[in-house]
Write a structure and sequence with these properties.
Radius of gyration: 19 Å
Largest sheet: 5 strands, parallel
Mean pLDDT: 95
Low-confidence stretches: none
Strand order of the largest sheet: 3-2-4-1-5
Number of helices: 8
Order of helices and strands: EHEHEHEHEHEHEHEEHE
Strand content: 15-25%
Number of strands: 10
């Protein structure tokens, strides 16, 4: 029986991959990739020739059993996502849980995760925080926001650029216009940007400037 390696990949800057990640990706028998085209560019850059197999949110329920059988047969497997650490708002949880249920070793390497630098450079308290990932698009969104309005810990959200203004508007509505917010986008890339301020100020900024790239929002908790 082999082992499942969960391997973080760069969220933008290719230099952020670790020596150990490259070593593991070279040595395993199979790499499970969220998008083989995207990961193919990364592997080509680091001259990694390991065979890849597609493993994403649309097929992971169907492929878990076959992957478990490969691991039991001695195939060593590495799981990667398009960027960052797998299972953090990306596929990975189902497979790691299945491995644990079948007594297959799981090892997660440390590495890039977008919310950590966004939290640290936000200037907001980071001794206690909650990671919310993406808010529900429609059903359950209002319920979640009403619940989070009472949260006293710093909150972290992921958001797509075309939904950022709408989400900031909801934060103003449910959390208050004066709630402190930090929006980081394009982390580790050439046009990295972090905008900090009151919710209404950040909303005004992005209302006048269309955002691009991957986005992490850090919101102060409710004052006690």
């Amino acid at each position: 029986m082999s082992k499942l390696y969960i391997v973080p990949t760069p969220i933008g800057n290719l230099k952020d991959i670790t020596f150990r990640a490259i070593e593991v990706l070279n040595e395993v028998d199979l790499i499970l990739a969220e998008d083989t085209r995207t990961s193919g560019k990364l592997l080509k850059h680091f001259e990694i020739a390991t065979h890849m197999q597609s493993h994403h949110m649309h097929n992971e329920h169907k492929t878990v059993d076959s992957i478990i059988q490969k691991l039991k047969a001695g195939t060593s497997v590495a799981l990667i996502s398009d960027a960052g650490t797998p299972a953090i708002s990306d596929p990975g949880f189902l497979l790691s849980r299945a491995c644990i249920e079948h007594n297959i070793a799981v090892e997660c390497l440390p590495g890039a995760t977008a919310f950590v630098p966004a939290l640290v450079n936000s200037g907001l308290p980071n001794d206690k925080f909650v990671f919310e990932g993406f808010l529900p698009v429609k059903k359950g969104r209002q319920t979640r926001l009403l619940l989070l309005a009472e949260e006293t810990r710093t909150m972290i959200f992921y958001e797509s650029p075309h939904k950022l203004v709408k989400t900031l508007g909801h934060f103003c509505e449910y959390f208050g216009e004066d709630r402190s917010i930090s929006v980081s986008r394009e982390l580790t890339k050439m046009f990295e940007e972090t905008i900090r301020g009151k919710a209404k100020e950040v909303l005004e900024y992005y209302t006048n400037k269309s955002p691009k790239g991957e986005i992490v929002i850090v919101v102060a908790g409710k004052s006690k």
